[in-house]
Write the C-alpha cells for this entry.
Amino acid sequence: VCQGENKCLTDDFPKFQSANSELFGISCDSFFSHKAWADSLDLKHRLLSDFNREVVKKYGLYFEPLNCGKRATVIVDKNGKVAYVAWYKDGQLNNPGRNHPAYRRFRSNGKLKFEMYYTHGLLHDPGATTPAVRGYFADGSLHYEERYWAGRRNDAKNGTAAIRKWRRDGTLRHELHYLAGRRLGDGEVPLVNRTR
C-alpha cells in the first residue's frame, strides 16, 4: 500500500476502532523497513512483514514476476473467514487476471455473494461469456448477472441481455436489454452481433 493510502488509513483509524475492527497493512518488505516507514509517517495502524511471501500466496495475491504481493484490500470476519476482497492497479479497481474479478464479497457461510470485473476502474465484461457483475443466492446458484462495456450497461455481442435475473429454481425470471447505457424499450429489438 502506498504512502498516501497509509496516511488515509491513519486519518480514518478512529472509524476502524469505533467499528470494533483491527487494521493491518501487510507487505513483503522487511520488519525494519516497515518500522522506519511507520515512524516517518506517524502511522497508527500496524504494518506486518510477509517477508517469506506466505500470506500473499495463501490469499492468491502473490505476483511472481516481481516476487511481491499484489495491491488488494481483504476483510476477514471475526470467524477468520474472508468476507471481502478487492484488487487495485494505479489506485483503481482492476482485475488481477482475466478469470479473476477485481471485487468479491462473501456470505458468512463462505459462499460467494457477488463478484465484479473492472478494467481501469470501470465495470467491464472480461470476455464474451463472462459478465462484469454476477450475484449468487445463498446456496451458491446464480441469481443475476449484468453486462457492461467501459462502465455502461450493454448487451453482449451475441445479443445476450445486459441484465438477467433467475428464480431459485434456475428458470429465467426476466431480462433487460441495453445499448451504450440506455435501456431499450419493448418495441426496440436488440441488435445481435453488433460491434460493442
